Amino acid sequence: MALVEVRGLTKSFRRPDKGPGLGGSLKHLVQRKFTTVTAVDDVNLSIEAGEAVAYVGPNGAGKSTTVKLLTGIIHPTSGEVVVGGVVPHRDRNANARQIGVLFGQRSQLWWDLPVRESLTLLRDIYDIPSAAYKARLDRLDEVLGLAELLPVVTRKLSLGQRMRADLACALIHSPRVVYLDEPTIGLDISVKDRVREFLRSLKDEGTTVMLTTHDLGDIEDTCERIVIIDSGRIIYDGGLAQVKDEYARERSVHLQLAGAVTRDAIADRLPTAAVVAGDHPGEFTVTFDRFTLTAGAVLAGILPLAEVLEVRIDEPAIEDVVRRVYAGDLVLAEAAE
Ligand SMILES: Nc1ncnc2c1ncn2[C@@H]1O[C@H](COP(=O)(O)OP(=O)(O)OP(=O)(O)O)[C@@H](O)[C@H]1O
């Protein structure tokens, strides 16, 4: 059995069906009507120990509800969840010892206490032996720069510092599985990079990671697998590299050319590509669909016009694929069974 095993998982919520305004609320008091929302609909998912899985989908797709079911915070309407042999909603304590959770929009730090105190409380809650606790703090300091945050009261932390401290809280007990829901939300580029680097180190240490994010840059270097959920149903479950290889159509070639060549001259030779001039003379970016053109053909088209001094080809981005899936322009072939 996989470390995380989910079978036929369904969660429905009953939502009050109120009309608009105060009138609607009053009417609801007399004539109670409800709508059932199926947030998670017959989901099957197996995550092996050591895997890093991106769990993505548009707003309201059912991601957070899935994570809440996996952590045992809520009970399923039907179906099964087993994490490391534990049914999370039946034994939340046993489950809490083996999992780490971060909800990026909320904090598990005690607001009026220094970060160190929050961590000490967690040490006591999880009953972590002193030596193991110290070793873990040292490791978290190495990857998150934790030491400078320890004496600071939570409410005085910046958002980026708070996220680093929250990640430490989620991982202080060395959990086997971590669920990270939007770990880089609201962070500036430099802190985001630091958190992403940390996610890579988690993966390298063999921690099983389920990462939920709208910022697909988070998953590029961390996750080897992508699961896409839409309207509560899994619509794709497969390798990230494979998806990019098969479906990421857009490629960009950045060029530095010698001599006075114009954008229009290049565009004339490459009618199916988009050509954009850069800020400096001779700089151009050519973007094309790799199913109609190749980087070689782009260069061959340009060489008669000018000498090519520098070439850089952008890696295909998962954003390109997922954006088209969300927009309904693309159906991925290898849907989950
Ligand atoms: N406690 C609840 N009561 C009623 N409806 C709920 C509840 N929790 C979630 N839902 C509904 O279930 C659906 C899935 O919500 P969920 O929060 O899991 O989506 P999500 O993919 O995490 O979205 P986002 O990316 O916006 O965070 C939505 O339609 C939401 O309104």
Strand arrangement in the largest pleated sheet: 5-6-7-3-8-9
Helix vs. strand class: alpha/beta
Strand content: 25-35%
Count of helix runs:
12
Radius of gyration: 24 Å
Overall average pLDDT: 90
- Assign an overall shape: globular
Poorly predicted sequence stretches spanning 5 or more consecutive residues: none
Fold-level CATH name of the largest domain = Rossmann fold
Query: Which CATH architecture of the largest domain?
Result: 3-Layer(aba) Sandwich
Please tally the β strands and state the result.
Answer: 13
Q: Give helix % range.
A: 25-40%
Secondary-structure element sequence?
EHEEHEHEHHHEHEHEEHEHEEHEH
The top level CATH class name of the largest domain:
Alpha Beta
> What ligands are attached or bound here?
adenosine-5'-triphosphate
Q: Specify the biggest β-sheet.
A: 6 strands, mixed
CATH superfamily of the largest domain: P-loop containing nucleotide triphosphate hydrolases
Pfam family, one: ABC_tran
Keywords: Antibiotic resistance, ATP-binding, Nucleotide-binding, Transport
Membrane topology: Peripheral membrane protein
InterPro entries: AAA+_ATPase (IPR003593), ABC_transporter-like_ATP-bd (IPR003439), ABC_transporter-like_CS (IPR017871), ABC_transporter_ATP-binding (IPR050763), P-loop_NTPase (IPR027417)
